[in-house]
What we know:
Layout: E1 3-8, H1 12-22, E2 27-32, H2 36-45, H3 49-52, E3 62-64, H4 67-71, E4 76-79, H5 86-105, E5 117-120, H6 133-140, H7 142-147, E6 156-159, H8 164-168, E7 173-178, H9 182-192, E8 197-202, H10 205-227, H11 232-252, H12 263-273, H13 279-288, H14 293-300, H15 305-320, H16 325-335, H17 340-348
Parallel strand pairs: 1-2, 1-4, 2-3, 4-5, 5-6, 7-8
Antiparallel strand pairs: 6-7
Helix pairs in contact: 5-6, 10-11, 10-12, 10-13, 10-15, 11-12, 13-14, 15-16, 16-17
Amino acid sequence: MTNKVAILGTGSWGTALASTFAENQNNDVIIWGISSDQIDDININHQNKKYLGDSKLSPNLKATADMASAVVNANIILFVVPTKAIYDVAGKLNNVLIQLQNSQNHNQDQQQKIIPIIGHATKGIEANTFKRISQMINEATFESLGALHIKEEDLFFLAGPSHAESVVAHAITLVSIASPNQQNAKFVQQALANKNFRVYTNTDIVGSELAASLKNVLAIAGGIIKGLNMVDNTQAALVTRGLVEMKRFGVAMGGQNTTFDGLAGLGDLIVTAMSPNSRNFRAGLQLAQGKTLEEIQTEMGMVIEGIANTKAIYDLSQEKNINMPISTSVYNILYKGQKVEEAIDELMARKLTSE
Length: 355
């Protein structure tokens, strides 16, 4: 049986996942985006030069600016757009799904409606409301999902230590798909896994989504450490104590403790907090080198999720009285203009305690 897979978003990670899906012969994959240049580049050159340079994509991958043609009869729909675009794209999907359903209702030849499995690979939390991405998608697509009998617990989230540049280069990569609906998770697992891309499943979408957001904040701290030419001792300390913060916050918000020891937690934290392939790491690196936040965002040209994540996590930790010293220091640097060296001194001068 052929699976139709629709990827929403032509950024680096969306493109890498779409290409990986397309490498598996049982998948018919279409990626949707709004940039005609990127769509042409994918369809004609099998590249996405804007985000992935000269990396070659699967020749089986197709791109379109027409969302309806991308998602019609799709078995899997995967959001891979920035947090700030989720409501807009999910609202468009809502309208498209309703229109397609109405069209199918009038088509006498339609024997069986295909109910899509919907998920995302976006690592963020909405500012002010503190909603996770799956909550945002469910809220924005309530009408269409309700009509299709899809519940919030049927959504899935894909995460793990996986830089897009490495994935399209066929580096051995392991990720996890989190969903309370394990039947859905296993369906996506089978469609995506191949010899270079191993996929696990877990049931903890709450913990997985929170871990992905928290590691973005810690990755900024990792970049700062590198920018100050600190050594492996300090990087190891950041990962170890950062993981403690991730667990403390995530469990308080309903995640499972063991999730943070897995691919969505520790795995993603290691790869993002220690690698220049991470935008958040590069942002921290440049902060340590004296650049302003505005300069960094302009030069990067891509969304740095950790900046908004930092504020959301800080605000929520303050509201829930969760102790988050490293994340608070990153917040003070980004939003209060605290000097990097001063923030580090404050961290090291805190009252001594046990692990």
